[in-house]
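Write out this protein's structure.
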Amino acid sequence: MMQITSQKSDQKRELKRIEWNIVKRLITLLYHDGNLKKTNIAMKSNMSYDKCMLYLNWLMMIDLIKKEKDDDGFEVIRLKERGEKIFHEQIKTLD
């Protein structure tokens, strides 16, 4: 029984459905604020850290954001060129 429980907790959580207003909020935040740490992104986007990480992983998977190291060696998230293009073509024109 213990083995089944540990297997369940090892499974990777994934988004069940994409909420586009959250995607828009994250892309807009990263466009305006640039290189942010994951915790700061979660706080500024008013999301739980776990939920924010699910969305950031999804955005990375579809090649809109990337991880980099800042001057102090901390991991930061920034938009890729494709993410900036989506901001200009899709999000900015809706506001």
